[in-house]
Design brief:
Strands 1-2-6-4-5-3 form a six-stranded mixed sheet, with helices on both faces. The chain has a two-stranded antiparallel sheet with strand order 7-8. The chain is of the alpha/beta class. It has 13 helices and eight strands. α5 crosses α7 and α6 packs across α7. It folds into three domains: 108 residues, Alpha-Beta Complex (Conserved hypothetical protein from pyrococcus furiosus pfu- 392566-001, ParB domain); 53 residues; 50 residues, no CATH class. β4 and β5 form a beta hairpin.
Length: 286
């Protein structure tokens, strides 16, 4: 290591803002930027981004050949090697640009902090596809034991935005793949969630792609399908059952189905996450 540089971009300062009360300041010393051998660095296995745009990496590599790496990456030591905490695109582009070293800030943090910083750095970018974003949010909620409220604060997003992101993971792998490939938008996906039948969701998803439907056109299509389903169910269920379903849905803020039987019946209450389940239980227990 050599060529210590002074200074740090405001973007990285903001990234570490939430750690100032949680970590020892000496572990987050921003004043030392060092040049590290490209070959001694490994990517982070908890990287939120599953797909890297080869063309954009190439463009970044071209820029790095001319201007160098403007913003250092962040790494943490792993034995005699380093693991990327934030900045994998810059590292990949630097390798493509045949650079021997890359400017980096070395911080000593535990695995939980490494996961969180890396995920937040990526989740705050606008170019992340909806599924990578949803899976990143899921890691923050599940592996780091954060509530949706805490996750929202970490990301600077609203709680509904976090809940909506997690709901996308209820969709089939086929639809998630279309989202990851950006053939469908998050708006399309949220519309599809209004359908309860998975095979029908996939059929409509294919229609959206083939006919290049807008989100509004998709919403209208699905509303029409749901009306047909509602009319069909209305013929099968007594009116008093439908009234009870409607009342429960309004009270609980989620979809409710009552399946009456000869001797006993079933009430199905849908929820979309542990947080949503807790919300429903709070209303039930009032």
């Amino acid at each position: 290591m050599a060529n210590v540089k002074k200074g740090l971009g405001r973007g990285l300062d903001a990234l570490f803002e939430s750690y100032k009360d949680e970590a020892d300041e000496k572990n987050l010393d921003h004043s030392r930027i060092v040049e590290i051998s490209i070959t001694s660095i490994d990517p982070n296995p908890n990287q939120a981004r599953s797909r890297f745009d080869d063309e954009k990496i190439k463009e970044l590599a071209d820029s790095i050949r001319i201007h160098g790496v403007v913003q250092p990456i962040i790494v943490t030591s792993k034995g005699n090697r380093y693991q990327i905490v934030a900045g994998e695109r810059r590292w990949r582009a630097s390798r493509l640009a045949s650079k021997d070293t890359i400017p980096a800030i070395i911080i000593e943090i535990d695995e939980k902090q490494s996961i969180e910083i890396g995920l937040i750095e990526n989740l705050q970018r606008e170019d992340l596809n909806p599924i990578d974003e949803a899976k990143g949010v899921q890691v923050l909620v599940n592996r780091l034991n954060l509530t949706q409220e805490e996750t929202a604060k970490r990301l600077g997003k609203s709680r509904p935005a976090v809940a909506n992101a997690l709901r996308l993971l209820q969709l089939s792998e086929r639809i998630q793949k279309l989202l990851a490939e950006e053939k469908l938008t998050a708006g399309h996906a949220r519309s599809l969630l209004a359908l309860s039948d998975n095979s029908l969701r996939e059929t409509i998803a294919n229609t959206i792609v083939e006919k290049e439907l807008s989100v509004r056109e998709t919403e209208n299509l699905i509303q029409g399908l749901n009306k047909k389903v509602s009319k069909s169910k209305a013929k099968e269920k007594p009116s008093y059952i439908l009234e009870i379903e409607s009342g429960l849905e309004e009270s609980l803020g989620t979809r409710v189905q009552i399946k009456p039987g000869a001797k006993k019946g079933i009430i199905e209450i849908e929820y979309y996450s542990n947080e949503d389940l807790e919300r429903i239980m709070e209303r039930v227990n009032k």
